[in-house]
Amino acid sequence: MPLPVKPEETQDSLSEQRKTCRRQALDLLARREHSRLELERKLLARSYPRDTTNEVLDALEVEGLLEETRFIESFVRARIDKGQGPTRIRADLIQRGIDEAHIQVGLREACQDWGVLAAKVRRKRFGMDMPSDFTERARQMRFLQYRGFEGGQIETALDPAVDPD
């Protein structure tokens, strides 16, 4: 016959579980900003119950320690520094659970001239010389498209009149 569980023991274990979940979440946030979905996935992967995880994340949002706008700003800036375009950044943010309206605001607030960035990325990868034939031009266009730049931005990058510096 199983022993009866005392209510205070259950409360203590739940309280301790919340504390360790919160500590883990804060450790992750100390390293870098996370979206709520990223943090939720990581905590669930560490075997914390979904309800405990959601309680902890709600509390962190109320305290301002987990903030979507700050995450988006940090993420967009880091990806721009890596030479990625708006299409790739948007796709990566969607994977992290950010909605389209917030993505639009984040990309707009970055105040980035995407054509100039594409030109810098092209120059860094292929050098100063513009493509001399169609094959080379297509190769550079595919590279910039893979990096997340759109058609007009790629055309700007391949325009010899554009000085990225």
Number of distinct helices? 9
List the uncertain runs.
Answer: 1-9
How many extended strands? Answer: 0
Q: Which percent range fits the helix content?
A: 55-70%
By helix and strand content, what is the structural category?
A: mainly alpha
Distance between the termini: 78 Å
Protein traits:
165 residues, mainly alpha, Arc Repressor Mutant, subunit A, elongated, disordered N terminus
Please characterize this protein's 3D structure.
With about 160 residues, the protein is mostly helical. It has three domains: about 5-60, Arc Repressor Mutant, subunit A; about 70-110, Arc Repressor Mutant, subunit A (Orthogonal Bundle); about 115-155, Arc Repressor Mutant, subunit A. The chain has nine helices and no strands. The chain has helices spanning about 5-30, 35-45, 50-60, 70-80, 85-95, 100-110, 115-125, 135-145, 150-155. α1 (about 5-30) crosses α3, α2 runs antiparallel to α3 and α5 crosses α6. Mean pLDDT is about 90; it is low at about 1-10.
Short description:
With 165 residues, this protein is mainly α. Helices cover 70% and strands 0% of the residues.
Which secondary structure elements does this structure contain, and how are they paired or packed?
Blueprint: H1 7-31, H2 36-45, H3 50-62, H4 68-81, H5 86-95, H6 100-109, H7 114-126, H8 134-146, H9 151-157
